[in-house]
Design a protein that fits this description.
Blueprint (H helix, E strand, L loop, with lengths): L3 E3 L2 H9 L4 E3 L6 E5 L3 H11 L8 E3 L15 H10 L4 E6 L6 H4 L4 E5 L4 H10 L3 E2 L14 H8 L5 E3 L11 E6 L2 E6 L5 H8 L3 E2 L27 E4 L10 E4 L11 E3 L6 H17 L5 E4 L6 H16 L3
Parallel strand pairs: 1-8, 2-8, 4-6, 5-9, 10-11, 12-15, 13-14, 13-15
Antiparallel strand pairs: 2-3, 3-7, 4-7, 5-6, 9-10
């Protein structure tokens, strides 16, 4: 199979309606999209990504009001989040309706739903006429793609189409909030700062990351301790003195003096939004640079820095101590 890069959204719509997979741009990262209520198409997504079926998918809708088509219940606080933050980089895990395929939900009684902000993605969902499943368009556990080229680098020959919509504005996956019987949980920090959610509905419970050794169904995508990893070993550091000669360096702001090796400074202006938008692009570049190790200086643990640290810590856990 040859992977074709499309520039025409109408071609992508026709392919999706025919049950094909198309990598699509969103404001967070590129998603590998397919008909979200068709188990045969969902199986293609898992196969193309080498993704285990115990890791559920997010179903994407065109308009906020469509959440009730997938969720059997939308609690009051969930409705407040929908009204305030959708369309946007926020996913809600809610009780599912019976027609939602078990393959989309890892067999659980909940469904992950998002209304994306990217206008092209929403237009495509609207014209296809059904929710689209769209996990990140990469191999499972690897770096997320924020450009069409990133998609091709990992999925060339595995999927038929990529729609080139430029680079992704937010640059990290959505924040996931789970409405569970015992409370409301932060399942994954992401493109919507957690502080904004807690300001509206109060403190969130936390769910520890899991190193899964058996096929245990996950409450939401991105919960595995080992995830988002470059092929190059990555380590998180707290100060430049921990660097080794030849390391590829990833920093928020500031550069180590005299270091011999590539340095990616994400935001000299100390803007976490800018840093998040460039995170995966920088990691892709460092991964291609041939360095023996990537050293990422820990980011401030607030706002989007929480999401950045989450991605880096999971990437570091993939390779173990280096």
């Amino acid at each position: 199979m040859q992977t074709v890069i499309l520039s025409d959204a109408e071609e992508a719509i026709r392919a999706l309606k025919a049950g094909e997979l198309v990598a699509l741009p969103t404001e967070t990262v590129y998603g590998l999209a397919g008909l979200g209520l068709n188990p045969e198409v969902l199986a293609k997504i898992f196969s193309a990504k080498d993704r285990p079926t115990f890791d559920p998918l997010i179903l994407h809708i065109a308009r906020p009001g469509q959440v009730s088509q997938l969720a059997s219940e939308v609690p009051h606080d969930a409705r407040r989040l929908v009204d305030t933050f959708w369309p946007g980089p926020l996913t809600l895990v809610l009780p599912k309706k019976p027609h939602v395929p078990d393959l989309a939900t890892a067999g659980l009684g909940t469904v992950a739903v998002r209304c994306p902000k990217h206008p092209l993605m929403r237009k495509i969902i609207e014209k296809v006429g059904v929710p689209l499943a769209a996990p990140s368009a990469n191999l499972f556990g690897r770096l997320s793609p924020t450009s069409a080229q990133h998609v091709v680098e990992q999925l060339e020959g595995r999927i038929p189409y990529v729609l080139d919509g430029g680079t992704c504005e937010v640059g990290v996956e959505s924040t996931i909030i789970g409405f569970m019987p015992d409370g409301v949980y932060l399942l994954r920090p992401g493109g919507l700062p957690v502080e904004q959610v807690e300001h509206m509905i109060g403190p969130l419970k936390r769910m520890p990351a899991q190193i899964v050794e058996t096929a245990t169904s996950q409450a939401a995508p991105g919960l595995l301790m080992k995830h988002y990893a470059p092929a190059t070993p990555l380590v998180m550091i707290d100060r430049f003195e921990e660097l080794k000669p030849g390391d590829g360096v990833l920093t928020f702001c500031g550069r180590p003096q005299g270091h011999l090796g590539p340095i990616m400074e994400l935001s000299p202006r100390k803007n976490l939004q800018e840093a998040a938008s460039l995170l995966f692009q920088a990691l892709h570049q460092l991964d291609r640079s041939g360095v023996p190790r990537i050293a990422a200086l820990r980011f401030p643990e607030h706002g989007l820095g929480m999401a950045i640290n989450d991605r880096l810590s999971r990437a570091a856990a993939t390779h173990g101590p280096v």
